[in-house]
Amino acid sequence: MMVELQHSPMTWEEYADRNAGVTFATWIFDATEEDVMKYQYAEGIWFCSDRFHETYNSDADCRVLFHCNDGNIYQTASDDVVDIETNGERKYVRMLKTIDAEARRMLDKFFGRTWPLKQWDGAPTFRQAATIDTPVRVLSEAGRPEIDRWHRNFMYRFPSVPRIVVSAPPGAGKTTEIIEMMRRWHKRALVITFNKGTQETMQQRIQQAGLTADARTLDSLCYDACSRPELMQKWSDWELCNQFWPKSAKFKFGKSGGGRRSSNIIDFRFRHPRAHASICKQHRRLALKGSDWDGEFTSYPVQKIVQSCMTHAACRYVCDQRCSLRAKLDAYDVILVDEMQDLISAQEQRLLFQTSKPVVLVGDPMQAINNFRDDPPCTSCHLEQENAPALSNAIEWYGTWRLDSFTVRFVEERFERRMYSYRAVDDTSEVYWKDELVHAKTLVICRYNKNVVGVAMRYPDMRVVRGDTLAQQLAIAAKDDSMVTPMAKYAQELARSGELETVCQMLRERSVRLADVNDMAAVTTVHQVKGFEYDHCAVHSDLLAPKNRDERNISFVAFTRHRKSLVVMAKSD
Fold first, then answer.
1. pTM (2 decimals)?
2. Which of 166, 212, 392, 541 is the most core-located residue (most Cβ within 10 A)?
3. Is 459 helix (H, G, I), strand (E, B) or coil?
4. What is the largest CA-CA distance in the chain?
5. Which CATH class is domain 152-228+327-374?
6. Taking the alpha carbons of 69, 71, 75, 77 in that order, is the dihedral positive or negative?
7. pLDDT tens digit string along 167-182?
8. How far apart (Å, rounded) are the C-alpha atoms in residues 485 and 58?
C-alpha cells in the first residue's frame, strides 16, 4: 500500500515505474496553485487547470487525487488531460469528481483527522471554486466519452432556463434521447419537427414509448392558429397568374410579363418580412396596368393571400405578425425542437419563442442542408434574407452508435467534426475509394438529380428514390426556360436531345419510396436521406469537393449515412 504526495510534474513513465509492484496506490497531486472550476452542466464535476500534462492511469488498485486551491481533494474522472474551450478561451484541464468511498477510507487511514490539509507553512489562500456556467466544447479526443455522458445526463433534468441548444452528431440517437427526456420529466411536452414525414415518425415513437406527448410541424400549428383555412394552395407560377389575373394570365406568364418565379417571390417575402426587397423591372409588371408591383404586403395579390391565409407561408407570416402561436405553445410545459438546424431562420425563431415555456432545440448545425429554401428566387430582384439571431452556446454530444471508430476518425479529418464511436472496437466498417460499387445492395447518394439519372442508367437493376416525383419535376422544368436551377438546365438538355420522355419513363418504372428502401440497390439525392441510415452506402463524386459551408454540410450528411461500408466514388485519373 502506498500514498504518494506529488508536487512537481512527472512523466507517465515515472508514474508507471513508481507504481510497479505496489498492491494499492493513492496519488495526491498538488494543484493548490491552479484554478479549480465547478461545471454547471455535470453533477459533481470540477475542472482543474493542469500543469502536469501527462496521462496517469487509474483503476480499482490505483487512485489519482488532486488537492485543489479551494482546499478540497478530488478524484480524477479521466486519466488524461483534456483540451476544452469555454467562453471562447482554450484550457487544458484535469476533470475531477468527488472522491469515492475506497479513496476516502485510505485517506482516513493515512491522515486520520488532518485531511484535507488546510494550512501549512507557505500555504496559498484557499478560495471558493469558480463556476463554469456555459457548456464546454471538447477539442481533444480525451474527455469526449465523459463529457458526452454528462451532457446527456444533464438533459434528463427539466430545463431551468428559457432556451437550451443541444448539438448531436449523426447516429447520436437524438430521437431516443428526446423520448427519454420526456419520460424522465413527467411533463406535458410538444415536439416540433421539420416536416410531416418526421412528425409521423416522431409521433409513432412517442406512442410506442407509452407517452402522451404531441408531435407537430410549425406549419400545422400555424394552420390551426389561423382557424384552419379551407383551401390551402401551393401554386405553380401559371396557377398563381391564372388565379389572380385570369384575363391577362397568358400575357403575365409570357416572356414580357412578370409571372415566372412570382409564386416563389411571394413566398420568399412571407419568410423574410422584415428584410428589404426591391423588385426587378420584369416582375414589376405583375401589378395592374399603370402601376409597378413592389412586393409589399399591401400589394395585390399579397394582401389577399394574407387575408384569406391561402398558403402555409402566409399562415406563418400571420402568426409571426400577430404572435398567434403563444397560446397553443403555452398549453404545454416544455417545447422540444427536433432537427433544429432546419427550423432556426429568423422567422422560425420568432414563432418558436413566442412561448413563455422552456424550449429545447436538438440537432446538428453541420447537417443544415435545407438553406436553399432561402435562396432568392430571382437574381434580378434585390431580395434580402433576414439575419437569424445567434442561439446560445450548444451543449455538445459526441457519441455515435452508427459510425465505427475508423469512420469517426476519417470524418473528423475530412470535416473537422468531433465525435466518439460507441461501437465495439472490433465492430468495424469498410471505406473504399473507387468508382465501382463493392456490394450489390448499396444506396448511392448524389448531390444532383442529373447524376441520379446517370447512376440509374449505369446500373439497370437500381431503384430510384421518388423517381416518379423526379420525372414530374423534369417534365415541368423542361417547359419553363426561366428556371435556372441545375435540374431545370438538365431537363432542358434532355428535351433538346430528345431523351426526356425515355428518362422520365425509366424514373417512373423504377421509383421507390425511401421508407421501402431495404435490402436493395437504390440511388437518391442527399437531401432525401438526412436522418436515414443504410448498411452499404456510396457517395457520388459530385459530393467530393464542396466549395462553401453549405456544400460542406451537404457532403457531411452523405458521408455519414452508412453502417457497414462506404464507397467514395472517386473517378480514376
1. 0.90
2. 166
3. coil
4. 98
5. alpha beta
6. negative
7. 999 999 999 999 999 9
8. 59
